[in-house]
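Design review, sub-item: ligand-bound model
Attendees: FS, YL, KQ
YL presented the inputs for the zinc ion complex:
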Amino acid sequence: MSEIEEIPEIRLNDWLGYFFFPIGDRAHAGICLCHLTENGEMCVSNFPFDFPDVRAAMVNPNLPLWTLDKEDPLTLTPSLICKGCGLHGYLKEGMWAPLPRWIPDE
Ligand SMILES: [Zn+2]
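KQ shared the predicted structure:
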């Protein structure tokens, strides 16, 4: 492939959306969750899916992977936590279901 394809972002609401990222031959190897923090700043976190080829491509084998329960509408388990801003919730049936904000224990 010589051209870089535009990856469409799927908007869930006015402050949250995602797009699939590829690894190797797998076009949908995980999602980038793009969202606004409580301060209105742009934040992005990656959630790779639990497939053998994705697992094999991970530099750090201890990083968590998510189960792709359903691609359309998107359903992932377990819940998604952004370690950058503390965003926490479920992606279920293509909708964002918020959970209490994640607070690092340090
Ligand atoms: Zn975040």
